[in-house]
Design brief:
globular; alpha/beta; TIM Barrel; binds S-adenosylmethionine; disordered N terminus; binds iron/sulfur cluster; 11 helices
Length: 357
């Protein structure tokens, strides 16, 4: 299974946002107004990062003051509320999640939900710079899969794209994760002038090591120095080019995730395409995103959010928090409306590192 398969909705969300007990007495799963079951929460634990990828951040980012961030205990409490309401998969992301101080404390706390069976998967998306240090403990805690973002295998290009990174460190992190028994998936943003030519070789490399790979289209999130029309490579074009070297067989898997997968016959590996611009993936969306300041975004590409930090700090009663979550889910929009056009401001002012990629 590539990702969580959305479970068919059991009980439509009540229009008034009230909790509705199921027949067994447990709270009903979170169902949005379009009958999508929300079973997947992505949590950005920090907006900070040790890299400055050119499509993600500007060179001189202003980060949030630390006092605005949810504490690790508050993050744990919020996650517990989502899990009690039927969320089965948590992805820890950022910014770079592994640069948050004491982040392993949160993983240790959350792993109890894996032990109890309430949570099906605990995972993370990382740039890999700190993986060599943390992979063994993550694996011990039950993290079976990790997504590592890597856009090139050329050390100079890597430094240029990330504005400061050392490719060897990331490759070491990937090795450590594999050695610890974790399944690694490589995520690469398709960049017209920077890595377009390299994509076929990266696929051969990833598949040669038994890793899935996913290509992502640049999304207009947050202002960066570059013009995103110069960065944007439609994956329809990338796919056409790949077909001159590889035989791509579409896989039937319909997952709750945004990727559409193919098998690359020559390598035997799996390749995903995340195409928010050229193919809208919203109809099967099963996820919501929590920022490091406790804002719940129902859609990566829309502005509406719910301030769960205020609710969390106002009451110690988890049913109050659960009700706020339910009310937010009842406002989940049908989809995003990203467009990349020259001289247009970013469609969404938040950087990906704020909402959590
Ligand atoms: N720092 C971690 C990492 O790089 O994996 C986690 C956070 S990062 C924001 C998550 C993912 O978002 C990465 O795969 C990154 O390449 C992707 N990303 C960042 N900005 C993006 C953008 N504007 N469009 C598309 N993908 C983006
Ligand atoms: Fe940092 Fe990840 Fe954004 Fe790169 S993509 S700047 S690694 S948060």
């Amino acid at each position: 299974m590539l990702d969580d398969i959305s479970r068919p909705p059991q009980n439509p969300a009540p229009q008034d946002g009230a909790l509705r007990p199921s027949e067994a007495g447990a709270p009903a799963p979170l169902i949005d107004p379009f009958q999508r079951a929300i079973t997947y929460l992505r949590i950005s634990v920090t907006d900070r990062c040790d890299l400055r990828c050119a499509y993600c951040m500007s060179e001189h980012m202003e980060f949030l003051p630390k006092r605005d961030l949810l504490s690790l205990e508050e993050l744990d409490r919020l996650c517990g509320v989502f899990i009690a309401r039927g969320v089965r998969k948590l992805r820890i992301t950022g910014g770079e999640p592994l640069v948050r101080r004491d982040i392993m404390h949160l993983f240790r706390r959350l792993s109890r939900h894996l032990d109890s069976g309430a949570l099906r998967e605990l995972t993370l998306t990382t740039n890999g710079t700190q993986l060599a240090r943390f992979a063994p403990e993550l694996a011990r805690l039950g993290v079976r899969r990790v997504n590592v973002s890597l856009d090139t295998l050329d050390p100079d290009k890597f430094r240029a794209i990330t504005r400061r990174g050392d490719l060897a460190v990331v490759l070491g992190g990937i090795e450590a994760a594999r050695a610890a028994g974790m399944q690694v998936k490589i995520n690469a943003v398709a960049l017209r002038d920077l890595n377009a030519d390299e994509i076929p070789d990266m696929i051969a490399w990833a598949h040669g090591l038994g890793m899935d790979m996913t290509l992502i289209e640049v999304m207009p999130l947050g202002e960066v120095e570059a013009d995103r029309t110069d960065q944007f490579l439609p994956l329809s074009v990338a796919r056409q080019r790949l077909e001159s070297r590889y035989t791509l067989t579409p896989l039937p898997d319909r997952t709750g995730g945004p990727a559409r997968y193919v098998r690359v016959e020559e390598t035997g590996g799996r390749l995903g395409f995340i195409t928010p611009l050229t193919h809208n993936f919203c109809e099967s969306c099963n996820r919501v995103r929590l920022t490091c300041t406790g804002q719940l975004y129902m859609c990566l590409g829309q502005e509406d959010s719910s301030d769960l930090r205020a609710v969390l700090r106002a009451s110690e009663d988890d049913t109050v928090l659960a009700r706020a979550v339910e009310e937010a889910i009842a406002r989940k929009p049908k989809g995003h409306d990203f467009v990349i056009a020259r001289r247009r401001p970013a469609a969404v002012p938040r950087h990906m590192s704020v909402t959590g990629g």
